[in-house]
Task: inverse folding
C-alpha cells in the first residue's frame, strides 16, 4: 500500500513539474504584457510579477496597428478553413469507412501517409500553383482569402478522425434509415453527422487552432497590410533593429482569447457515447 502511494506521489510530482514548465512561457508572456515602459523585461533574475503594472500596452497595441482589421481577416480565414475541413473530411471519410470499392485500402493508406510530409516540403509547388491560379491578395481580397484557405481546406488527420468516428456507428442505424426512405445523402446528413458531433467538434477545435495561429503561409502569400492576419500583423510590431516586446506580448495575449472562447463553446460536444443504445437487441 505504501509503495503504491509513493509511486503515485512520484508520478503526480513529475506531472506537476512538466505542467509548470509547459505553462511558464504563457505566464511570462502575460507578465511581459503588463510591465510598464520603465521596467526592464530582460532583468536577471527574471521578475514574474510586474513592479510597474499597467494596461497601457493593450490600449497602445490596439491603436498602433490595424488590430480590428487583422482580427477580421483571421476570423474569415479560420471560419472558412474550419467549415471546409468539416465538410470535405466528412465526405472523404464516409466512403472509406462504409463503402466497398477497388483500391479502398490503397487510397486510405496513401492519404494517411501524407501526414508524414511537412507543409514546408510542399510549400514551393503549392505557392507556384497559387500564383498560377491568381489566388493572391494583389488580385483582390476575395482571391486572397481563397489562396489562404485552399491549401488547408482538408487534411489527412481530419479524414482519419472522421473515418474512425463513422466506423463506430452500427450499420443497423444506416439500414433503419434506408428502410424509413432515406437516400444515401439524406442518411449522411440527417442521421450520421448528428451522431458524430463530438468528433466534428474535436476536428473543428484542432483546425481552428491551427488556422488561427498559422504564420508561415500568410506571411508568404499576403502583400497588402489590409489583408494581414493576426500573427502576421503582430509580427509587424517587430522592426528590423528593435522590437517593443511589451506590445508584442499584449497583442499575442489578445490573439489567444478567440481560441479559448471557441474551445469553451465547443467543449460540450466533446462528450462521447451518444451512439450508445442507438440500436437495441
Result:
Amino acid at each position: 500500500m505504501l509503495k503504491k502511494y509513493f509511486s503515485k506521489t512520484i508520478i503526480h510530482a513529475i506531472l506537476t513539474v512538466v505542467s509548470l514548465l509547459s505553462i511558464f512561457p504563457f505566464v511570462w508572456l502575460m507578465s511581459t504584457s503588463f510591465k510598464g515602459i520603465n521596467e526592464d523585461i530582460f532583468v536577471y533574475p527574471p521578475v514574474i510579477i510586474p513592479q510597474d503594472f499597467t494596461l497601457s500596452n493593450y490600449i497602445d497595441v490596439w491603436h498602433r496597428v490595424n488590430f480590428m482589421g487583422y482580427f477580421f481577416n483571421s476570423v474569415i480565414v479560420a471560419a472558412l478553413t474550419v467549415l471546409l475541413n468539416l465538410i470535405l473530411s466528412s465526405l472523404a471519410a464516409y466512403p472509406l469507412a462504409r463503402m466497398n470499392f477497388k483500391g479502398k485500402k490503397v487510397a486510405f493508406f496513401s492519404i494517411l501517409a501524407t501526414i508524414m510530409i511537412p507543409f514546408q516540403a510542399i510549400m514551393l509547388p503549392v505557392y507556384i500553383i497559387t500564383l498560377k491560379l491568381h489566388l493572391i491578395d494583389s488580385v483582390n481580397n476575395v482571391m486572397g482569402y481563397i489562396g489562404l484557405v485552399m491549401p488547408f481546406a482538408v487534411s489527412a488527420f481530419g479524414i482519419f478522425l472522421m473515418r474512425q468516428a463513422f466506423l463506430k456507428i452500427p450499420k443497423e442505424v444506416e439500414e433503419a434509415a434506408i428502410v424509413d426512405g432515406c437516400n444515401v445523402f439524406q442518411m449522411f446528413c440527417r442521421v450520421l453527422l448528428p451522431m458524430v458531433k463530438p468528433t466534428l467538434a474535436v476536428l473543428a477545435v484542432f483546425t481552428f487552432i491551427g488556422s488561427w495561429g498559422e504564420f508561415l503561409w500568410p506571411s508568404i502569400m499576403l502583400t497588402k497590410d489590409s489583408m494581414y492576419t493576426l500573427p502576421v500583423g503582430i509580427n509587424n510590431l517587430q522592426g528590423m533593429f528593435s522590437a517593443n516586446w511589451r506590445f508584442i506580448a499584449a497583442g499575442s495575449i489578445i490573439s489567444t482569447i478567440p481560441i479559448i472562447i471557441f474551445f469553451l463553446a465547443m467543449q460540450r460536444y466533446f462528450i462521447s457515447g451518444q451512439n450508445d443504445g442507438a440500436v437495441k437487441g
The chain has a mean pLDDT of 83. The chain has two domains: 2-54, 60-270. The chain is about 65% helix and 0% strand. Residues 31 and 49 are 6 Å apart (CA to CA).
